Amino acid sequence: MTKIPPAVIILGNNSIPVAKKIISVLPGAQLYGLAGRTDDVDVSFTEFGTTLRELFAHGTPIIGICATGILIRTLAPLLANKREEPPVLAVAEDGSAVVPLLGGLNGVNSLARQIGEVLSVKPAITATGDIRFGIALEDPPTGYRLANPDDAKSFMSDLLAGNSVRLEGSAPWLKNSALPIAEDATRVIQITEKQVVSTSSRLVYHPATVAIGITFLNPCLPKTERGSSEEIALVQQMLADAELASASVAGIFASTLDAANPALQEIADALNVPIRFFTPDEIAGVMSQGKTVDVAAAAALTASSGQLVMQRQTSDFSCAIAKRCCFQQIALSPSPININTTGKPRGRLVVIGTGPGGSDWMSPEVKEVLRNATDLVGYSTYLELVGSLSKGKRWHESDNREEIARARVALDLATEGRFVAVVSSGDPGIYAMAAAVFEVLEKEAKPEWQGIEIQVAPGISAMQAAAAKIGAPLGHDFCAISLSDILKPWSIIEQRITAAAQADFVIAFYNPVSKQRTWQLAQAKNILLRYRYPETPVVLARNLGRDGESVQVCTLENLAPELADMRTVILVGSSKTRTIQRCDGSVWVYTPRRYDEDKTL
Prior knowledge:
Layout: E1 7-10, H1 16-23, E2 30-34, E3 43-45, H2 48-57, E4 62-64, H3 68-75, E5 88-91, E6 98-102, H4 108-119, H5 128-133, E7 144-146, H6 152-160, E8 165-168, H7 172-175, E9 187-191, E10 202-207, E11 210-216, H8 229-241, E12 249-255, H9 262-271, E13 275-278, H10 280-287, H11 295-304, E14 307-313, E15 317-323, E16 348-353, H12 364-372, E17 375-379, H13 380-385, E18 394-398, H14 403-415, E19 419-424, H15 433-444, E20 453-457, H16 462-470, E21 471-472, E22 478-482, H17 490-502, E23 506-510, H18 519-528, E24 537-542, E25 550-555, E26 568-572, E27 578-581, E28 587-590
Parallel strand pairs: 1-2, 1-4, 2-3, 4-5, 8-9, 9-10, 11-12, 12-13, 16-19, 16-20, 17-18, 17-19, 21-28, 22-23
Antiparallel strand pairs: 5-6, 7-10, 11-15, 14-15, 23-26, 24-25, 24-26, 27-28
């Protein structure tokens, strides 16, 4: 499985030099800094305990450049299962000490050695087996799985007590250790992709050398008619018939044309393995060599670079198993399949709304997307609003009017297996990029786009933020109308303003005025005055959540184009909207929830 990059936690700027040294050897690591006390960090936080516990629960390795005590006390309530604990280390502020604390079964000592090397210090590793033999039997490297982890502790105790061990099969990390290896030893470490019996005196490691290829022969069959239980059972039976351990399966491999089929994920989840995809051209390349005419077999062979072990089909499903071969005569076992360099993951595209301003307006969902995305696509002004969460990402900037081209770029990036965030301010589904993405998806309908996972993560809209700043003007029925006539004729806009005014909606006007468009707002005002009182409250909110934020209230008769620009959202009250005078001279604006037909124009 792909490992989550670490989070390096600092509480002050004095820790930055050490933190940057650590990050330099940990690809993807992010620097978290305490707000108000740190600068130039990837993620700024205000609550130390909450942040650490969220990272720990998410499985993120934590490197705290701080005292060990604060890390232990903060995470103590979450300690329940040592097999699931991510690595947690404490590093001295001056880099003089590296102390692994948690995650002994998930690589903490290896991580400590890596950090110790870049800091030129010896890590404070206390595990006896690790110290004497330079190896943690319970924590094999990526590409190997231990079949009987519960036996590893007593097995290591036997070795520490003077017993020797015999290796059956080959793995470099075992051969290069200081284990007491002897040909006549009664304790055995076996490396095999076969399903064999493990005991307290026999540790079995399964290398990820098996690839399962899958294709669907009837992909248009509705999901409700396609149950994955039979397919899962077939895959498991094939592994049993081939006497292969499911722990040796590196992943499920398929064509990108099958990426959207939910059964793929269900099969992968049943085997606890990732999914990787090959393009139709890559699949065709294997077929052209005459090795197979089946897409599933071609996917398995491409992933394994080995030989086909078994292939079976049902009426709408084909499955093939291939096994990596040993190409070097000196090696007894083939090397595992590297899932990070084999195929590509399913592309993901999330259209996010950052809210109208800074990070305080962003939802936790949006922040999580930004933390994990590989690419950010958007108008440069909106990308800058993301702040520190954009660091380390590939930026794809474009002009604010290039929505269709921007959507096309985002979809193409996602087909490469990348995690793309399309950034909009406000809510992405309100006059923003979500509609543009789906418009391109429908009109151009590229087959490779169909396998992309697409999601919309909502944000606080400008009209919601404006309403919250001034009270509750959207407290009853309301609508939103854009005054821009770039994408629709003014005649349609006039009809909608008239209908909304007649229906007595509170109206939120987006895009009210630009340098080229100054007359539309005045025209909208004239239409509204046919149905609204001149003293109707109007809210003008500009640059919400950003520098230069302003919120002002005027009456409809005093609304003028010079009061607004493209960064302004205007809320025009209904006949029921009220103002409340405040002691500081300002007002609250609200629309009552009860609508009584007591007065009309």
